[in-house]
Amino acid sequence: MRVSDILKVKGNTLYTVTPDTSLHDAVNTMAEHDIGSLVVMEYGDLVGMLTFREIILTLRTNGGSVGTTTIRKVMDDHPITCTPETEVDEVRRMMLEHHVRYLPVMESRSLMGVISFYDVAKAVVEAQGFENKLLKAYIRDWPEEEQHSGR
Question: Where is the CBS domain (predicted)?
Fold first, then answer.
């Protein structure tokens, strides 16, 4: 299974912001749309990711306030990415190794979507369920062996 398979099921709604967007506005957007990340784009290029991790760190630093800072000051400015052709097993490895929950999906320099740890887990569970159904059907239809008499 590839990332493109997950994107087909997930849909293509993307939420992006610029680095100069206020962190306050970004938090409101994330809460309004119940999302855990925003892709930071500037002049058509991916320049960062903002996730709840960066927001929580900012809240800790500022005594519980996001203040008047912009996303540029708190975003992850070197996010790891994948492509639509990346295998899901590789995405799982990347997410675990780099301790990230969201991966921008890039094709050349174009943003194709974002996949989350949840998206990957859901896809794996659904694939395993489908495989289990096939195996159970195969076992159920298994031809019985003929009984041979020892004579």
Answer: 6-66, 75-134
Q: Report residue 28 CA to chain centroid gap.
A: 21
Domain boundaries, the chain: 3-140
Q: Which CATH architecture has domain 3-140?
A: Roll (3.10)
Residue 130's pLDDT is 57
What span, in angstroms and rounded, lies between the C-alpha atoms of 37 and 3? 18
> What does pTM read for this prediction?
0.79
Name the pLDDT band for 124 (thresholds 50, 70, 90). confident
Token duo for residue 149: 């008499």
Which of these, 42, 9, 27, lies nearest to 115 by C-alpha position?
Answer: 9
What's the pLDDT at 135?
65
Q: What is the pLDDT of residue 10?
A: 82
- The candidate with the shortest Cα–Cα distance to 53, out of 105, 119, 109, 117, is 117
Structure tokens at 123: 């896809």
**117-140 and 88-98 helices, crossing angle to 10°:** 140
**Residue 76, token pair as written in the block:** 């992850």
Reported as a pLDDT band with limits 50, 70 and 90, residue 12 is confident
